[in-house]
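note to self: the first set is below, dont mix up w the second
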Amino acid sequence: MRKKHIYSALAVSIAAISIALLGGKLEVLSASGPEPLAALPEVPVPKDAPLTKDRVALGKHLFFDARLSGDGSISCADCHEPKRGWGDGADLSRGYPGTVHWRNSQTIVNAAFMKAWFWTSSASTMEKQAHSAINGSLAGNLKPVLAEERMKQIPVYVKLFAKVYGKAPSYDLALSAISAYERTIIAKDSPFDKYMGGDKKALSTKQLRGKALFEGKASCIACHSGPLLSDQEHYNLGVPKNSAFEENPQRQIAMRERMRSSGFSEDVYLKLDRDPGRFRATKNKADLGKFRTPPLRYTKYTAPYMHNGVFFTFEEVVDFYNAGGRDDPFGTKTKKVKPLGLTNSEKSDLVAFLESLSGSEILVERPKSPPYGLLKFPMVNQW
């Protein structure tokens, strides 16, 4: 019994020391270490939304249909373009016409495996992510009612919704179909996947050295762990500012609008010279500058990198981490990022391993959007 109390006291002491070393700020350190790297599991699919051929086909049509935006000019695919890594290829996202965004557009590849979506995990389901993208003022800017009336005016969609759901087109069912399609955009044929599947010749000697660095000296695995190579937690890494934010008034307007819409007053958001990160959602100052750890699969195709697209190559990213990060105006930078002391040879090996996380490019043919039809009036015979 005495031994049990001693071990309990020791565990409490170690926890207290860990928090003290982090400046009194609570940052969870796993006693068992990070989750090991692994192959991807089966795609998680909601029981009420199986990935049937017709459901996915409907979702694909809607994903590429620009009529699911306010002015009918941009589709989901314009910010998540297959030829641009299923992002938009820019450092900062384009935004709805007349606006521009101040964050990088993340890829949707392997998004099905996430537990929350967007850079600050502000959407708890893929369907909510789709809603924010279609309805958000800086994205699709489309009201759900208008979306429904447009879809009801398209005979092909009326037939597809009836076939898949047994109902007329609705906004919520459209979100379900789009999410179903997105769950099929999966990358799991990389050299790394083959290696994890048992093919020990899939990685070169250089890539294996990089993997050892990733899991060891470089400590990338502290955050980029598990099958996704992401712990899906939130950190301030000390990422430098993107000058595009200071050079484009529309980006500044967009961020201020989002801050005001989240309930912040001028005395808060006018102090900001950069993205406040998860703080906008939680209003907790400990979350200032924090963003979710991005997955690393398929990243060969998804540059630029970071929440503000400030780095364009793997080499830039590795140099950033090797230096221990940069700016920390919020005082919330994680202790996990510190100078690594990697040699040029080691940095090259690490880049080689990062390249092994991408396989073949996922390209699809854009479907032709079905035309509107004319309805016959009156649609009902009596009042």
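second set (the one i keep forgetting abt)
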Amino acid sequence: MNVNFDWKLILAIFSTILVLFAYAPYFKDIFAGKSKPHLYTWLIWAITQGTATVALLYGGGRFGSISLIVGTILVLAILILSFRFGTKDITKADTASLFVALVAVVIWWIFNDPVISLLMVTIIDAIGFIPTIRKTHKDPQSETISFWVVMIVVDILSIVANAEYNFLTVTYLAMLAVGNLIVAVICLLGRKSKMNLIKTINLENTSEKEASSFSVREAARAVVFDSDKNVALLYSKVNDYYKLPGGGVEKGEDYRAALARECLEEIGCEVEVLSELGMIVKYRKKHQLKQVSYCYTAKVQGKKGSPTLTQDEIEEGFETVWIPLEIGLGKIGENKKFSIYEAPYMVARDTAFLEVAISKGLSN
């Protein structure tokens, strides 16, 4: 008995499996706080991808539309998650893009012209890439690179799997492949460079030979702004000193996820990480420790809550104060009066971070 295999159907099924494979780590990173999808971007993509899927079917895409249909469902899922886990940085350009996308859908419904509709949604979907490209360029760690790479393969396979090749069946998928490629390349190139080193704090003149035997501890810290542009500082009522919120990164933990966890624990706020400020390396002979602190800017999401302090932090009388950035810098400087071993290290570290924030105009 002869069995005829439709290789285009096989390609379509394979590309659909790849779509599921691509989205799995992306969902995982969203829940882990690593990736923060943009609500308007994914809303645009949900509308345009759904419209393009209809156009693809209309143009005879047949098997090539299978992965696009599955992808549309997953895009809708990301859209729903964006309400809870996504960035709240919504610009006027995003709103304009959403409006144009809605106009394109109306044109499809009213005029029933698949060519005009597909052309419009292709352009709009390309615009939808812009916020993600900008965000990824600023912070390459904020996107799941495997997602974009696999989606490039999916787009190419979907094109090949089409029963017919014409403007309707190729244009949209080709645009997606190019957009995904741009994000993947920016993400890959950006990750090759480490966070900018602001300074090295070596108050005890630790030699390279001594430092080679030190244990290494990583920490994530942040200059966190509220809606009034005040920044959060932790104040110890018992020992009378101030410091930036943040703490140690656990083994295998993402820096941003660690920062989000520490901010929730120490200042009682959920935060959205905005950008990198830089890193500082400290050498402390007394503790035989090399500490690398990664600092970010962040903003409060939602209402301010109550911190969940450790027993040691409670006994030290820690509380959160919200003050202007420049005043915060002055408060950190007052820590020089605090006579413990760690004081000069904290002053040098947090002063440097706040000075970089001020130099970037973040106090305005």
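remember for set 2: The chain has a mean pLDDT of 82.
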